Fold each of these.
Amino acid sequence: MNIREFKEVIFKEAEKRGITDFELFYQSNKSFKVNVFQGEIEKYYNNSSGGVSFKAIVKGKTGYAYSERLDSESVNFLLESVIKNSEIANDEGEYIYSGDECYPKVDVFNKGLDDYDSNFKIKLCKDIERAALSYDERIISVKSCFVGTDEDEIYIANSKNLELFQSSNYASVYILVTAEENNTRKTGGEFWRGMDFGPVNYVKIAENACRKALSLLGSEPVEKGEMNVIFKNEAFADILTTFMDCFFAENCQKGSSLLKGKVGEKIASERVTIKDMPLLEGGFSTRGFDSEGVASYNKTVIENGKLNTLLYNLKSAAKDNIKSTGNGFKASFKSASSTAATNFVFEKGEHGFDELIYELYDGLIITRLAGLHSGAEPISGNFSLAADGFLVKGGKVLAPVEQITISGNFFDVLKNILNFSDDLYFDMATSKGAVICPSVLVKNINVAS
Amino acid sequence: MFEKQKVYDILSEALSFGGDFSEVFIEHNKKNSISFINGKADKIVSGFDYGLGLRIFSGERIIYSYTNDLSYDHLIKMAREASLAANKNDGAVINDFVERDYRGDSNRHKALIIPSDVDRQVIADMLFDASNSAFKYSNLISQTSMGYFDSTQEVLIANSRGLWARDRRVRTRAFVSAVASSKTEKQRGYLGPGALKGLEFYDEIDLNEMAEEAARSAVTMLKADFCPGGKMPVVIDNGFGGVIFHEACGHSLEAAAVAKNASVFRDKLGEKIASEKVTAIDDGTIQNEWGSINIDDEGAEGRKNILIENGILKSYIVDQFNGKKLGMSSTGSSRRESYKFAPVSRMTNTYIEKGEDNAEDIISSTDYGIYAKYMGGGSVNPVTGEFNFAVNEAYMIRNGKIAEPVRGATIIGKGTEVLMNIDMVSDNLRLAPGMCGASSGSVPVDVGQPMIRVNNITVGGRG
């Protein structure tokens, strides 16, 4: 069955069983990816998959189920499961959304992307690897190098006659290289994503990865203590993604966010403005509606240091008696709706990165963090993480540092931001959103080695 | 699940333009997850994962395609397209299938109570009770989060060399977590028991006791000061403490990293890479253990592999494809999260074997350092061997005694160095379940060890 046929069957069957409030969510993905190693294709992937989830409100309680199989057996499985699951669910006043009057049009599908055949992508991948290996003799190997394309479809239909469809596609490139000198190895990675291969500068992608790895060779020890640091944009994006959960209203309601009750209060340095921008052109999380069918709009989360709004889905908005901010998202069709940011944009500063280094004068630049899934506690905001970076003395980058940890608290970091530069970095999209941010200078971070 | 002739046709079509090996992995996986927040049902999801992954080897090349359209015509078309990516014709033939079935009597890890047969209310009641136990422990507990998960995965793995293996893997896991709060701070305690068995698991463990333990840990850490940073001895307790070996060494012993010269332990077989106190094992055969397997995800039976014996590197963790590159045979440890991933060498139950020291002596012989009671997760860069992991519950050791609790500790190091610095290994070996993420997805593994001491390692903290 295709999804439209499946919808007809399950809607009829649901009604036959006396279910009146329900919603079908369908998601499919087609992906192609080629990995090259030492000039040869190492891995070649060509995949297609999809599935549906079904949500129903039975006697005021919500049941969820999903299936990767679209047939009559699944219709039965889904309906039986949602009824059984609703029986132990909690009455949270969930409801099926009847839709918005109009939905913004977003440019997230490029018809032309299909014109690039597999040979083009294989050649591009080989070119990138070759460019990296010839960049510097200390680049001893390319650990991973791939070129891929993804095409996604989302379809939502419910018992309130809402019907929404969106397809999107993108191309991506990734390379991770290993540099070696005096028996020390360092890795450097570079990721690129776009809607068309046209603007890809493969030499630049390879060079950026190589430069990152090479720059970390030959490290100097660093003294422990409290100091000012610059989080390079990539590293700061990791911090923001890790602690994103605190901006979700549902976490405040459940008691797992320290931002509970802080709307209207100053929570960050006055310079800081953060926006959630689903309508941003070229964002990696650009979309016209969320997983619950609510129309997307741009909103300011932090304005000049003040918390302006939390991010809401239908359920958390109903609890606070306001309208959803269109941030009800699922990690995939397999999960129940939760909350996520879209393009989470930390507004850039006016000056270049070099000027930020001069402002730091003495301290560290942190270029990469490790252990974010374990060394950072989203609820308390505390983090203690392994880091790579550079020592800065007298406004000049002196040498790389290794085997250090940095510790602090996210909520303190927000308040302790002294300045930031104009080098916006577009981080990969995750199930929490896609961060866009510059490099940020923060005071009072603990460093140990 | 599938007719032999149709599978034969797909395997054969997959080799029509070249390639020396083809394999299908067909999966039916029924899953349930239930979460409770503050004693109330939060998210309840049942699901059915269903699909086929096709893998072709062509010299040094792996071709992989997956789909959940399992109609014959679609699969033949997919196999033909995949075959076009093969680069040479090795004239591979398809051998007759030899049937192996691990779902019945030959299942080493039998499940007595199949989760889908159980009334969800029973599980809901269990989570509700656990939440109450955590709240009752202390009035500092401000939030509880209880989770339950099960999966019943049925697989067929068939390949051009005549493999036809069917397996059933029934797993269940619970998560108990409690947050203790003061006016400005929040600290979380957490436990996550799991097993490769059915719901009889919950007759063997006491979720209420575990919820109390999570609450105790959260309350203890709420009152703790920040951990001091710097280099010092660290005593790591048994059970999940074994994550140090998993990160510091285990990942770097995976054949995929070794074959690509992306491991610090390449060319080190037979050499001393750890202190002689260290013997490390990867054992997929432990009955009903969370990380165990009947067969791995390319059909090889699980095994007990000695990785390091008295400090000497004895074996890598090897899958078919990378084994061929290295001239080694499979160690029964090729794994994947689902049909959406090409399998690769991964750990199963990996632990440091018990030693001859006594846990009390380890503490009493340490003048100053950290005692890490509960570890969090970690990660490693196998190329450089640099690893990190978090300590969820830690204490200072002063003058040979466990002193005040400290929080926010992270331990970092390089695999090659930390293994040499393990100077005491006790006899209280224990395993603990976890999820391990890598290129073939997230797979269930156990980590484990007896209490050990690392005599000098970098602790990150801000005290």
Amino acid sequence: MREKLFNFIGLALLALCFAASLVRTLSRHASTSEDGQPQRITIRFAHWQLEDGPREAFARIAAEYSRLHPEVRIEQLPIPERVFSSWLVTQLVGGTAPDIIELGKGLEIGQLVRYFVPLSDLAEAPNPYNHGTPLEGLPLRETFFDGMEGGYNPLLLEYYGVPISGGSIRLFYNLELLERITGSRRLPRTSGELMALCEKIARHAAKEGVPLVPIAGSRYNAPFLMEALFSSQTQKLAETLNPPGIIDGNPVAQASGYLEGRWNLRSDAVRSGLTLMREVGRAMQPGFSQIMRDDATLLFVQNRAVMICTGSWDATSIRRQITFPLGVSPIPFPSPNDPVYGPHTLGARSEAGVNAGISFGLTRYSSHPEVAADFLLFLASRQANQLWTDVSGWIPSILTTRPGPEVEPFLPVLEGWLPGLMPSISKGFADTSRLFNTSFHLLVSPFGSVEAMIDTLEDDYPEAIRRDLERERLKRIQILQRGDTQLAALAWLARDPAAPPADRARLDLLLQADSTNQRNFYRTRFALEKAGTPSP
Amino acid sequence: MSPCRLLFFLWIGVGGATAGPLDPAWRDASNLLFNQAHQQFQRAAKKEGAAERERMLGHGITLLNLQPRTQSNLEEARALFQRLMAQAPESGEARFAAFYLARLYELYDHPAQPDQARRLYRQLLEDHPGDLLAERSASCLVLLDLYETISDEERTRRFHALESWASRLRTPTGRRDFSLNMGYACLDFPAIEASRARAIHYLLAAEKEGITQHQMEARTWIAIGELARLEGRKELAREYYQKFLTKYRRDNRHYTLQKRLETL
Amino acid sequence: MAAPISPRKAWHEWNLYLFILPAVLLIGLFCYFPAASAIYHSFFRWSGGEEKEFIGLKNFYDVLGDGVFWNSFWVIGILVVSNLFKLAPAILIAVLIHRLKSERWQYLYRIVVVLPMIVPGLVTLFIWKSFFDPTQGALNRFLDLTGLKTALVALDRAVGWGVFHEGIPIAWLGEPSLVIPSLILWGFPWIGAVGVLIYLAGLQSIGSEVYEAAQLDGAGPWQTFFHIEFPLIMTQVRLSLVMLIISTLQGFGLQFLLLGQDGGPGGRGMVPGLWMFNRAFLAGEFGYACALGLFLFAFILGLTWVNNRYVRVEKT
């Protein structure tokens, strides 16, 4: 009897779990609201921002919208970042996607066109929710700090998303530890001061016998700091690689410059950048390149590292875990007067070019597209964006929104120079990046050196760059080919005298975009031919 | 929108047909829904005259990007374009077909057939001045002719040959895109005689026709300012630096140009 | 073995096949369809979206010249060989549990072995990743506390590895020479629950009269193991071997989580599966990754054939 009872326990547990999930699933489709009122409209929106801050902010914004529109219920669906792409595809293909989805992860252009509604009409009209504010009457896109570029798709020439937040990279400091070690809370303003501080911290740790590192590094965090400092050394070099009249860097021109011999890994600027990377790497804990983001954060919040370099999006999470006062500063770049690193640098980098992110798009599956669009407008309003920044602690995207004192240190620094070359030229250069990453240990290991890394990279670098350029050429030709049909169709439609002005405007933009794409394709092809890789 | 551009669009509008039954297919194609558009063109009833030509054109255009892209699809598109050109050489459909046949030769064939593409582009320019796609051929020719691995002398010779087209283009977009390509080619190939001065000339010409895409406008203003500075034309440099700094306040090139302006 | 039935009888009982139809459909949809799709896409230049271009055998030609892919088989080879040795603890534990006289203790030990299965594999991987952490990891702390670190440093000096240094935490996943040893060390003590259960099932099918006969002949515990138990569970061992080879060859989750998408320092941990992932998701070459997958499939098929042909089980 007892045995039979034990045997049924498992079955009973299974039945219980099944019943619970059945109830939960069915209740999601329930038409009554919490207070038993008749059917409310439910608008669901999904995102992957599981860091501390955004979810509460979204909940507040949703509550505020429901207060204004009692017949509407807003439901938030936070989905883990790791599974978001696969979740998104299944939802879209299966026809069960929420009304509003955060754009940017795992979304291919064909899917964007097929499953999302263009918002260009919305972008050109004033936002009614900005009534009574300084933004009243302005077209929606002009109310964003980046002109709503963060939601614009340059291939489709339409706005597909409403971006609600900005982001920046900062150095975070444990001010308590800093004061204890240096006697003051003064933050370094140049890389020279940063390295001097790191040395002081290392000496203190050795003297006191405490496990303390100057900078907490990880596979995720380290590149923010190291790449920024590397590119500070290649600013002047990058300028020389541009054709006259062009001042911003272009990976194809930089890659082509390498293959033409105009720069290489032994160039003074590159060597200087690698040396600076090594110095910074040595200030991080041993083996940092093998550990993940959370481990580095743990090191910092547990008082075992004085500094960590990460994005503004981690600030709220960090603040909620620390028991010490937090200092924040932009990455300290080498001063042009620095005797070692000054000659190659122009100065600190501008952050003006960063577009707004956390962009939300409207799916074609929405049962209530007008309501969903209205919620998007509310999300993009000054009122909601103020709530967003106040509750999440993230940078707002709408002009005239007042960031709180905790957000102010993260606001982009607009004054600054253009960045230089990146160590692997571009993150989109898969083979060059892989080569660099797999040799990285030679740079930062205690027994490694800049020379060892250059010696290892040198032989394979040209071939990797060539392959990446070839991949770039293929990508660009695909863009042109895609554009051919699109252009032909628009040109055909625009022949009609009754064609809407929007079609003609779109055609004009597409003609310009196509010209740019053609020039980019031919430049890439020419660079390859010059480097001895003939076109097929 | 500038008056020139408005007139241009009215002009191409006058030349066009009234809204037709295949418009939804064209609309899908303009939104990159190629397979859906292709199905609609394929299934549309075969008619006579202009309607059938439009169907054939749409069929061919969508075959270029029908997924998966195969050589047989491209050959079918080629055959359709050639048939359109033979059936009604003076029709709008034939002009589209000629242009996209050239594109086939240029961008889709392995190996590419640039000479065939050039021949078709030049034919279009000669035979159909003022047509949107014919004038687009001019900017395509710039890239085909100049971005080849040839000697500097040959490139300069080709550049001068291309310059003769500038005065023959009648549409604002044609002149704009041609000038942009010529101007940027001067930047990419400094061996072209007086490349900087020529670049300024062409970029100013493009700007006069109206560049509405923000990124291209910004880039062109910067290029004009920079080149003017290098050529010692300080007033022009100041003018274009100021234009950029006033309109593009939030741009990571802003500070750099501010500093450049201060040194002038 | 079931006796064959005539086609006429099989057709007459057609409605019985409806019972297996759902399973067949699901297998077709979730197993065979993706495989067929991979074969199809291997002939295309495909970046994972809707656009694809037919390029014939080009991807396959490129695979033949892909140094990274072929080198990754060396890593896999080492891991397969090391995994062979890692079979031993599970067999040993199964034998020890089997030899317990008390059924109650057998049951309890089975539970102890099986219980860790409720921990998701990903969690185990993360735990091991934390073990390998140079500054906070349990492994380095253990080596420091026990003095083994000092021994390793001395050995290093004698042999000249240049890997273990006094005062410098060991970067298990950050030092190229330690990547493969770390991958081998992962999972210690290598007592897989599934393996133990499979071997136990095999051992339990051995009749007691066989043991009695062995005892009468004066066989000791090791002789009993080598001459009776091990030969009689060879079917299960062979099954484990096939599963092990296939999972090691296909697997890349371990390497991805521990070393990242580039295979760690020097690319030392790059295995074929990880290279497929790298090409697909980093380089955007999904068609090429499918071609890589087909080569891997052919390789696994070849090895399975070798295993079936040469790892024979005598049927008595």
